[in-house]
Amino acid sequence: MDALRIPRPDDFHLHLRDGAMLRAVLADTCRTFGRAIVMPNLVPPVTTAAEAEAYRARILASRPAGSDFEPLMTLYLTDRTTPNAVRAAAASRVVHGVKLYPAHATTNAAHGVTELEALDDTLDAMAEAGLPLLVHGEKLGPDIDVFDREARFIEGVLAPLVARHPALKVVLEHVTTKQGIEWVMAGGDNVAGTLTAHHLMLDRNDLFDGGLRPHHYCLPVVKRREHKQALRKAACSGHPRLFLGTDSAPHPVRAKESACGCAGLYTAPTALELYAQVFDEEGALDHLEAFASRNGQRFYRLPVSEVQVELRREETPDPGRLQVEGGDEVLAFHPK
Ligand code: NCD
Ligand code: ZN
Cα(306)–Cα(210) distance, rounded to whole angstroms? Predict the structure, then answer.
């Protein structure tokens, strides 16, 4: 199979940032994806329907000429998010999910949730409105090893949450462990998971390959090789509740190559090609269409695109560095 045609895919987990960075990165996503679930972790975060609408307008205004890319907005859940804010978001029609960041778990998560149990009414309102909860699945604590954060979150927070709110739709974002995969697969129709291209390609050895590799550092951090193998097998299995979410997260090179380098990989320029490479290596190209163009769309109740995109078997070019107005550069991920 040297050419593959699939309905235009969507990216179910994307960071587009704002201002000059937004203007620099947006075209890379528009080239391939029809829609994207846009993360709300701006500074300050997007916490109301009105803020989501204003951010959406800035994204639309930054699209390359002729692009019909559609941003699907999300709200950032805080300790103060009310059931009414959720109902207003659902009524807006532009908000498609609410993002849970445990406080301080990742980039711009300072406003994240400190006490999830106090938000039961808000989560009930989400379930009623059919608005999914998108979960950054890491539990932090002085006694919790960074490589165990996802597994500890699932057993300590996520499983009890789903037991309390069985009608709530939940997406475990950027699954990085076999425990995460097992949890999604064992769940009901309301439970799904996204997988990034880089977690399918990297394991923790790649963080230290010949020296410290800040451009392979993201959150949740890449895990042991056996976890990567479990993610690849699951992605390529055609499982209906696993789908594409790049977590493409651009940062200036200067912020990554620093004594305290920040987390996030920029994969948008070749994201679909990276996934296709993994599916090809696993002998599962026939399952790429479901993963990229059908499963997430079904979960979010979005129509499958009528536009087709074509992938050809050829070397994926190294996208190199992207220039941002003001002098910053962003280094795009490229596998060795
Ligand atoms: C993301 C970012 O930079 O916003 N970083 C990352 O490593 N994935 C935040 C996130 O999704 O955790
Ligand atoms: Zn993310």
Answer: 46
Which atom from ligand 1 is nearest to the alpha carbon of 218?
7
State the pTM of this model: 0.98
Pairing of strands 321-323, 95-100: unpaired
State the 10-residue block means of pLDDT for the chain, 336 residues long.
94 98 98 98 97 98 98 97 98 97 86 94 98 97 97 98 98 98 98 98 98 98 98 98 99 98 98 98 98 98 98 95 98 94
For the residues of 107-144, what is the DSSP string, one character each? TT-TTSBS-GGGGHHHHHHHHHHTPPEEE------TT-
Which atom of ligand 1 is nearest to 264's Cα? 7
- Atom 11 of ligand 1, residue of closest alpha carbon: 247
Using the atom order of ligand 1, give the atom closest to the CA of residue 41. 4
Residue 78: predicted pLDDT: 96
Closest CA to 184 of 128, 221, 230: 230
DSSP 246-300: --B----HHHHSSTTPPP--B-GGGHHHHHHHHHHHTT-GGGHHIIIIIHHHHHT
Ion ligand 2 nearby residues (CB, 5 A) = 247
pLDDT of residue 271: 98
CA of 17 to the centre of ligand 1 (A): 11
- Spot the catalytic one: 10, 28, 247, 328: 247
| Closest ligand to residue 74's CA | 2
- 273 CA distance to ligand 2 centroid (A)? 20
